[in-house]
Design a protein that fits this description.
Elements: E1 6-10, H1 14-27, H2 39-45, E2 56-65, E3 68-78, H3 79-85, E4 89-97, H4 101-117, E5 122-125, E6 127-128, E7 134-135, E8 137-140, H5 157-163, E9 167-178, H6 186-197, E10 201-205, H7 211-225, H8 237-247, E11 256-261, E12 264-273, H9 276-279, H10 287-298, E13 303-311, H11 320-334, E14 339-346, H12 350-358, E15 362-373
Parallel strand pairs: 4-5, 13-14
Antiparallel strand pairs: 1-2, 2-3, 3-4, 5-15, 6-7, 8-15, 9-14, 9-15, 10-11, 11-12, 12-13
Helix pairs in contact: 6-11
Length: 374
Amino acid sequence: MADHKIHVEEVKNRNDLMSFIRLPWAIYQGDRYWVPPLIKDQLYKLSPNHPFHSHAEMALFLAYRGSKVVGRIAGIIDRHYIEFHQEKVGFFGFFETVEDEEVAESLFSKVKDWLKKRGMQKALGPMNPSTNDECGLLIEGFQSPPVLMMPYNPIYYSSFLESLGWKKAMDLYAYRIEKTTLMEGQLSRIAELSKRREPELWVRPIRLKQIEEELKTIKEIYNQAWSRNWGFVPMTEEEIDDLAKNLIPLVIPELVLLVYLKEEPIGFSVALPDYNQVLKHLNGRIGLFGGIKYLYYRRKIKTVRMMLLGIKHGFQKRGAEGLLYAETIKNGLQKGFEAAECSWILENNHLMKHGIESLGGKHYKTYRIYECPL
């Protein structure tokens, strides 16, 4: 008789790792909104060569029913998070399961034991693998696909977590701004208001030819502007360089902006075309046909994701935020884009939420970070 008992094993070799990476294809079969990630990107993110692993420890686990893989999870300890927040918090991430609470329970039990043995007192997640990457569980807004670098999951995941004792730690919001609902004249009004408050504010696009210099400015602003945000982890030089290397080929300079007060760079914003609309057609691999599809579908992208916007402390609430939003949207419209997602925004970031809502942005998706004492 077949063994239907669930058992959880740590990923030990390349075959296990490929089972871990390929599992979502089984979970999301027939789901029209799921976007398959690139397998090579997943392999890199989970490999010891990724700069995140220079300050973190990660264990990957697979749940089996008999010999069939039915779930996966990662246990993650980020030493930079622990040092920065001065609390012994570990993470779970990369969680996927078939619709069976027993599988979820086995996975969470395993990951909590793993974290506890390493001295952690609380677990947070999902982090894939940190707040500087994809994070959060989709709990509202299942009627459309995720945009670039945003997570997606089946609707039943949140009920599994909640019945296993996980509680809300923080919600992250995604807003959508449509060309058709953009408030007439609001862009120029916001820009005028910002300039009236601070006449010496000005904005310029990123210079890709001087990218090393630009990155230096962005690094300095990033780790200062975000440092008081919930869940923030400072990014290392290597992590920012790595992220930039992956994103620069996707950049349209007019959508990556630096804002200055007189001669001082005080903030920046990054909006990228929603390349998920291309990935949807590649099924995890580029290859020759993938390359042709990539070039074909890239031309059809009509949405951008505004993924980063930060202003140095001391310069916030002085009009720079509004100017970055207004310029990005104006430039996006000129480039032929028709919609933008602004994500993610912390639920308690009222300034940012108000700014997006004043442009006609609608809160349309919610992602939740859960916590659990160990």
